[in-house]
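Batch job 17 of 40 flagged for manual review because the log was empty.
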Amino acid sequence: MTFGLVAAGRLGGRRLARGSLALATGLAVGTVGLAWLAARSLVMPRRREPVRTPGDLGLPFSSLDMAGADDVNLAAWWIPADRPRGGIVLVHGFRSSRDEMLDHAPYLHDAGFDVLLYDARACGLSGGAMSTLGWRETSDLRAVIDHLEQWTDGRPLAVMGHSLGAAVAILEGADDPRVRAFILEAPFTAIEDVIDRGFRHFTRPSLPVFPFAPLTVRLAEARVGQHRSAVRPIDVIDRLAPRPALLVSGSEDPFVYPDDARRFAERAGPSCTLWLIPDAVHPGGEQDPYRSATTEYQARVLALLDGAVPARTARRRRPQAGRSVAAASAAGASAAPPDPATTTSRKAGSSVA
Protein backbone atom coordinates (compact mmCIF):
# COMPACT_ATOMS: atom_id res chain seq x y z
CA MET A 1 0.00 0.00 0.00
CA THR A 2 2.77 2.39 0.97
CA PHE A 3 4.70 1.51 -2.18
CA GLY A 4 1.64 2.30 -4.33
CA LEU A 5 1.18 5.68 -2.73
CA VAL A 6 4.85 6.54 -3.25
CA ALA A 7 4.72 5.45 -6.89
CA ALA A 8 1.55 7.45 -7.47
CA GLY A 9 3.14 10.46 -5.84
CA ARG A 10 6.20 10.19 -8.06
CA LEU A 11 4.04 9.85 -11.17
CA GLY A 12 2.00 12.88 -10.17
CA GLY A 13 5.17 14.86 -9.53
CA ARG A 14 6.54 14.02 -12.97
CA ARG A 15 3.26 15.04 -14.60
CA LEU A 16 3.28 18.31 -12.67
CA ALA A 17 6.89 18.98 -13.70
CA ARG A 18 6.10 18.26 -17.36
CA GLY A 19 3.04 20.48 -17.17
CA SER A 20 5.01 23.28 -15.56
CA LEU A 21 7.72 22.97 -18.21
CA ALA A 22 5.15 23.07 -20.99
CA LEU A 23 3.52 26.12 -19.44
CA ALA A 24 6.86 27.91 -19.03
CA THR A 25 7.81 27.06 -22.60
CA GLY A 26 4.49 28.38 -23.87
CA LEU A 27 4.84 31.59 -21.89
CA ALA A 28 8.40 32.10 -23.18
CA VAL A 29 7.38 31.50 -26.79
CA GLY A 30 4.38 33.79 -26.40
CA THR A 31 6.50 36.52 -24.81
CA VAL A 32 9.09 36.37 -27.58
CA GLY A 33 6.37 36.32 -30.23
CA LEU A 34 4.66 39.40 -28.84
CA ALA A 35 8.01 41.18 -28.46
CA TRP A 36 8.81 40.29 -32.09
CA LEU A 37 5.58 41.95 -33.21
CA ALA A 38 6.41 45.01 -31.10
CA ALA A 39 9.93 45.16 -32.60
CA ARG A 40 8.45 44.89 -36.08
CA SER A 41 6.18 47.86 -35.38
CA LEU A 42 9.21 49.86 -34.23
CA VAL A 43 11.38 49.26 -37.27
CA MET A 44 8.52 49.05 -39.79
CA PRO A 45 6.14 51.78 -38.60
CA ARG A 46 2.91 52.44 -40.46
CA ARG A 47 3.52 55.12 -43.06
CA ARG A 48 1.88 58.53 -42.80
CA GLU A 49 2.05 60.37 -46.10
CA PRO A 50 2.14 64.18 -46.23
CA VAL A 51 -1.31 65.78 -46.31
CA ARG A 52 -0.09 69.35 -46.94
CA THR A 53 2.47 70.89 -49.26
CA PRO A 54 4.40 74.17 -49.13
CA GLY A 55 2.00 75.40 -51.81
CA ASP A 56 -0.78 75.29 -49.25
CA LEU A 57 1.16 77.94 -47.32
CA GLY A 58 1.80 80.07 -50.41
CA LEU A 59 5.45 79.02 -50.80
CA PRO A 60 7.19 78.33 -54.12
CA PHE A 61 8.53 74.78 -54.08
CA SER A 62 9.59 71.77 -56.07
CA SER A 63 9.18 68.11 -55.23
CA LEU A 64 12.25 65.98 -55.80
CA ASP A 65 13.80 62.63 -55.04
CA MET A 66 17.29 62.35 -53.54
CA ALA A 67 19.62 59.45 -52.93
CA GLY A 68 20.26 58.77 -49.26
CA ALA A 69 22.64 56.30 -47.66
CA ASP A 70 22.74 52.92 -49.49
CA ASP A 71 20.93 54.72 -52.34
CA VAL A 72 17.56 54.70 -50.61
CA ASN A 73 15.18 57.15 -52.28
CA LEU A 74 14.28 60.16 -50.13
CA ALA A 75 11.25 62.21 -51.18
CA ALA A 76 11.72 65.92 -50.50
CA TRP A 77 10.47 69.47 -50.94
CA TRP A 78 12.84 72.22 -51.99
CA ILE A 79 11.82 75.79 -51.06
CA PRO A 80 14.41 78.23 -52.44
CA ALA A 81 14.83 81.76 -51.12
CA ASP A 82 15.11 84.66 -53.56
CA ARG A 83 18.13 86.15 -51.78
CA PRO A 84 19.53 83.14 -49.92
CA ARG A 85 21.88 83.60 -46.99
CA GLY A 86 22.09 79.90 -46.21
CA GLY A 87 20.25 76.62 -46.21
CA ILE A 88 18.42 74.67 -43.53
CA VAL A 89 17.29 71.05 -43.40
CA LEU A 90 14.14 70.19 -41.45
CA VAL A 91 14.08 66.63 -40.08
CA HIS A 92 10.81 65.15 -38.79
CA GLY A 93 10.25 62.71 -35.95
CA PHE A 94 9.48 59.02 -35.65
CA ARG A 95 6.51 57.59 -37.57
CA SER A 96 5.79 60.91 -39.26
CA SER A 97 6.53 62.73 -42.52
CA ARG A 98 7.99 66.00 -43.75
CA ASP A 99 4.77 68.00 -43.39
CA GLU A 100 5.25 67.74 -39.60
CA MET A 101 7.93 70.43 -40.07
CA LEU A 102 6.07 72.49 -42.63
CA ASP A 103 4.91 75.28 -40.29
CA HIS A 104 8.55 76.31 -39.82
CA ALA A 105 9.13 76.82 -43.54
CA PRO A 106 7.43 80.23 -44.08
CA TYR A 107 9.37 82.26 -41.51
CA LEU A 108 12.66 80.55 -42.38
CA HIS A 109 12.06 81.21 -46.09
CA ASP A 110 11.17 84.84 -45.38
CA ALA A 111 14.40 85.19 -43.40
CA GLY A 112 16.43 84.22 -46.46
CA PHE A 113 16.97 80.49 -46.06
CA ASP A 114 16.68 77.81 -48.68
CA VAL A 115 14.55 75.19 -46.92
CA LEU A 116 14.75 71.45 -47.57
CA LEU A 117 12.27 69.04 -46.00
CA TYR A 118 12.40 65.30 -46.63
CA ASP A 119 10.67 62.11 -45.60
CA ALA A 120 12.98 59.83 -43.62
CA ARG A 121 13.52 56.30 -44.88
CA ALA A 122 10.48 54.05 -44.43
CA CYS A 123 8.35 57.17 -43.84
CA GLY A 124 6.03 59.24 -46.01
CA LEU A 125 6.80 58.79 -49.70
CA SER A 126 10.45 57.78 -49.28
CA GLY A 127 11.85 54.37 -50.04
CA GLY A 128 13.19 51.84 -47.60
CA ALA A 129 11.30 49.09 -45.81
CA MET A 130 12.78 49.62 -42.37
CA SER A 131 13.42 52.45 -39.94
CA THR A 132 16.73 51.99 -38.12
CA LEU A 133 15.78 54.30 -35.22
CA GLY A 134 18.54 56.79 -35.97
CA TRP A 135 21.41 54.64 -37.26
CA ARG A 136 21.12 54.79 -41.05
CA GLU A 137 18.99 57.93 -40.72
CA THR A 138 22.15 59.72 -39.60
CA SER A 139 23.92 58.67 -42.80
CA ASP A 140 20.84 59.76 -44.77
CA LEU A 141 21.08 63.23 -43.24
CA ARG A 142 24.72 63.41 -44.28
CA ALA A 143 23.72 62.57 -47.86
CA VAL A 144 21.01 65.26 -47.74
CA ILE A 145 23.58 67.80 -46.51
CA ASP A 146 25.88 66.76 -49.36
CA HIS A 147 23.13 67.69 -51.82
CA LEU A 148 22.21 70.91 -50.04
CA GLU A 149 25.83 72.05 -49.87
CA GLN A 150 26.01 71.87 -53.68
CA TRP A 151 22.65 73.53 -54.23
CA THR A 152 23.42 76.46 -51.91
CA ASP A 153 26.86 77.16 -53.47
CA GLY A 154 28.61 76.50 -50.17
CA ARG A 155 26.57 78.95 -48.09
CA PRO A 156 26.19 78.21 -44.35
CA LEU A 157 23.92 75.35 -43.37
CA ALA A 158 21.76 74.64 -40.32
CA VAL A 159 19.59 71.74 -39.19
CA MET A 160 16.29 71.71 -37.29
CA GLY A 161 14.94 68.42 -35.97
CA HIS A 162 12.04 67.11 -33.92
CA SER A 163 12.33 64.10 -31.59
CA LEU A 164 14.08 61.34 -33.60
CA GLY A 165 14.96 64.03 -36.16
CA ALA A 166 16.65 66.07 -33.41
CA ALA A 167 18.55 63.00 -32.23
CA VAL A 168 19.71 62.37 -35.81
CA ALA A 169 20.79 66.02 -36.11
CA ILE A 170 22.97 65.65 -33.00
CA LEU A 171 24.51 62.37 -34.18
CA GLU A 172 25.34 63.81 -37.60
CA GLY A 173 26.38 67.23 -36.35
CA ALA A 174 28.87 65.69 -33.94
CA ASP A 175 30.99 64.64 -36.94
CA ASP A 176 29.94 67.15 -39.60
CA PRO A 177 31.49 70.63 -39.29
CA ARG A 178 29.46 71.92 -42.25
CA VAL A 179 26.43 72.41 -39.98
CA ARG A 180 26.75 75.88 -38.42
CA ALA A 181 23.70 75.88 -36.10
CA PHE A 182 21.17 73.48 -34.59
CA ILE A 183 17.55 73.76 -33.46
CA LEU A 184 16.81 70.62 -31.46
CA GLU A 185 13.28 69.98 -30.23
CA ALA A 186 12.83 67.08 -27.81
CA PRO A 187 15.79 64.86 -28.73
CA PHE A 188 15.97 61.62 -26.77
CA THR A 189 19.07 60.82 -24.73
CA ALA A 190 19.30 57.17 -25.84
CA ILE A 191 17.03 54.85 -27.79
CA GLU A 192 16.35 52.56 -24.80
CA ASP A 193 15.22 55.52 -22.67
CA VAL A 194 12.55 56.72 -25.05
CA ILE A 195 11.33 53.18 -25.77
CA ASP A 196 10.96 52.45 -22.07
CA ARG A 197 8.86 55.57 -21.55
CA GLY A 198 6.85 55.43 -24.75
CA PHE A 199 6.62 51.68 -25.22
CA ARG A 200 2.82 51.53 -25.27
CA HIS A 201 2.66 54.58 -27.56
CA PHE A 202 5.31 53.61 -30.11
CA THR A 203 4.66 49.88 -30.48
CA ARG A 204 1.83 47.58 -31.51
CA PRO A 205 0.38 45.61 -29.87
CA SER A 206 0.23 47.70 -26.72
CA LEU A 207 2.18 45.74 -24.11
CA PRO A 208 3.49 46.34 -20.58
CA VAL A 209 7.02 47.69 -20.36
CA PHE A 210 8.25 44.68 -18.40
CA PRO A 211 9.22 42.17 -19.63
CA PHE A 212 8.56 43.28 -23.19
CA ALA A 213 10.50 46.54 -23.66
CA PRO A 214 14.03 45.17 -23.08
CA LEU A 215 13.32 42.13 -25.25
CA THR A 216 11.79 44.32 -27.96
CA VAL A 217 14.90 46.50 -28.07
CA ARG A 218 17.12 43.43 -28.49
CA LEU A 219 14.93 42.02 -31.26
CA ALA A 220 14.88 45.42 -33.00
CA GLU A 221 18.69 45.49 -32.80
CA ALA A 222 18.81 42.08 -34.46
CA ARG A 223 16.52 43.21 -37.28
CA VAL A 224 18.39 46.47 -37.86
CA GLY A 225 21.82 44.90 -37.52
CA GLN A 226 23.17 47.54 -35.15
CA HIS A 227 23.55 47.81 -31.38
CA ARG A 228 21.60 50.50 -29.57
CA SER A 229 24.86 52.05 -28.35
CA ALA A 230 25.18 53.59 -31.85
CA VAL A 231 22.14 55.79 -31.12
CA ARG A 232 23.04 57.71 -27.96
CA PRO A 233 22.88 61.46 -28.69
CA ILE A 234 23.64 62.27 -25.04
CA ASP A 235 27.16 60.87 -25.53
CA VAL A 236 28.09 63.15 -28.43
CA ILE A 237 26.18 66.43 -28.00
CA ASP A 238 29.28 68.06 -26.52
CA ARG A 239 30.90 67.76 -29.97
CA LEU A 240 28.46 70.32 -31.40
CA ALA A 241 30.33 73.07 -29.53
CA PRO A 242 31.31 75.81 -30.16
CA ARG A 243 28.52 75.96 -32.76
CA PRO A 244 25.27 77.41 -31.37
CA ALA A 245 22.33 75.16 -30.53
CA LEU A 246 18.82 75.92 -29.31
CA LEU A 247 17.48 73.02 -27.25
CA VAL A 248 13.68 73.13 -26.92
CA SER A 249 11.63 70.89 -24.65
CA GLY A 250 8.16 70.81 -23.13
CA SER A 251 7.72 70.59 -19.37
CA GLU A 252 4.94 67.99 -19.84
CA ASP A 253 6.62 65.84 -22.48
CA PRO A 254 5.86 62.23 -21.49
CA PHE A 255 8.77 60.78 -23.50
CA VAL A 256 11.61 63.30 -23.14
CA TYR A 257 11.69 64.55 -19.57
CA PRO A 258 12.84 68.03 -18.50
CA ASP A 259 15.77 66.40 -16.71
CA ASP A 260 16.85 64.91 -20.06
CA ALA A 261 16.92 68.38 -21.57
CA ARG A 262 18.95 69.67 -18.63
CA ARG A 263 21.45 66.82 -19.03
CA PHE A 264 21.80 67.65 -22.72
CA ALA A 265 22.37 71.34 -21.98
CA GLU A 266 24.92 70.60 -19.28
CA ARG A 267 26.91 68.30 -21.54
CA ALA A 268 26.64 70.62 -24.54
CA GLY A 269 28.17 73.55 -22.70
CA PRO A 270 27.66 77.33 -23.00
CA SER A 271 27.06 77.31 -26.76
CA CYS A 272 23.74 75.51 -26.13
CA THR A 273 20.67 77.45 -24.96
CA LEU A 274 17.99 75.46 -23.13
CA TRP A 275 14.39 76.63 -23.50
CA LEU A 276 11.93 74.66 -21.36
CA ILE A 277 8.37 75.61 -22.33
CA PRO A 278 5.76 75.33 -19.54
CA ASP A 279 2.85 72.92 -20.17
CA ALA A 280 4.14 71.91 -23.62
CA VAL A 281 4.16 68.25 -24.67
CA HIS A 282 6.03 66.18 -27.25
CA PRO A 283 6.26 67.45 -30.86
CA GLY A 284 3.11 66.75 -32.84
CA GLY A 285 0.69 67.08 -29.93
CA GLU A 286 -2.00 69.73 -29.55
CA GLN A 287 0.18 71.62 -27.07
CA ASP A 288 3.59 70.92 -28.56
CA PRO A 289 6.38 73.50 -28.10
CA TYR A 290 5.79 75.36 -31.37
CA ARG A 291 2.02 75.63 -30.94
CA SER A 292 2.45 76.63 -27.29
CA ALA A 293 4.73 79.60 -27.99
CA THR A 294 4.74 80.25 -31.74
CA THR A 295 5.85 83.90 -31.77
CA GLU A 296 8.64 83.43 -29.24
CA TYR A 297 9.70 80.19 -30.94
CA GLN A 298 10.20 81.95 -34.26
CA ALA A 299 12.04 84.82 -32.60
CA ARG A 300 14.44 82.50 -30.76
CA VAL A 301 15.17 80.44 -33.87
CA LEU A 302 15.86 83.50 -36.00
CA ALA A 303 18.05 85.05 -33.30
CA LEU A 304 20.14 81.89 -33.19
CA LEU A 305 20.45 81.80 -36.98
CA ASP A 306 21.24 85.52 -37.21
CA GLY A 307 24.22 84.93 -34.96
CA ALA A 308 25.47 81.99 -37.02
CA VAL A 309 24.58 82.94 -40.60
CA PRO A 310 25.25 86.46 -41.93
CA ALA A 311 22.68 88.22 -44.09
CA ARG A 312 23.02 88.16 -47.87
CA THR A 313 21.48 90.45 -50.46
CA ALA A 314 22.52 89.03 -53.84
CA ARG A 315 19.81 87.26 -55.81
CA ARG A 316 20.33 83.59 -56.63
CA ARG A 317 21.18 82.47 -60.12
CA ARG A 318 18.54 80.34 -61.79
CA PRO A 319 19.70 76.69 -62.02
CA GLN A 320 20.13 75.17 -65.46
CA ALA A 321 17.24 72.92 -66.37
CA GLY A 322 17.41 69.54 -68.01
CA ARG A 323 19.16 67.34 -65.46
CA SER A 324 17.42 65.53 -62.66
CA VAL A 325 18.73 65.05 -59.14
CA ALA A 326 18.68 61.28 -59.65
CA ALA A 327 20.69 61.53 -62.87
CA ALA A 328 23.27 63.76 -61.24
CA SER A 329 23.60 61.42 -58.28
CA ALA A 330 24.24 58.53 -60.64
CA ALA A 331 26.99 60.58 -62.26
CA GLY A 332 28.62 61.16 -58.89
CA ALA A 333 27.63 64.81 -58.44
CA SER A 334 24.69 66.82 -57.12
CA ALA A 335 22.74 68.75 -59.74
CA ALA A 336 20.96 72.01 -59.07
CA PRO A 337 17.50 71.22 -57.69
CA PRO A 338 14.39 71.80 -59.79
CA ASP A 339 13.39 75.45 -60.12
CA PRO A 340 9.82 76.08 -58.89
CA ALA A 341 9.41 78.63 -61.68
CA THR A 342 10.04 76.02 -64.38
CA THR A 343 8.89 72.71 -62.88
CA THR A 344 5.60 71.20 -61.83
CA SER A 345 5.50 70.26 -58.16
CA ARG A 346 4.29 66.80 -57.21
CA LYS A 347 1.21 66.89 -55.00
CA ALA A 348 1.26 65.45 -51.50
CA GLY A 349 -0.03 61.90 -51.47
CA SER A 350 1.08 61.05 -55.01
CA SER A 351 3.32 58.09 -55.65
CA VAL A 352 7.08 58.31 -55.87
CA ALA A 353 8.46 57.92 -59.34
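Reviewer: the log was empty due to a logging misconfiguration, but the result itself is present. The first helix runs from residue 2 to 43. Unflagging and moving on to job 18.
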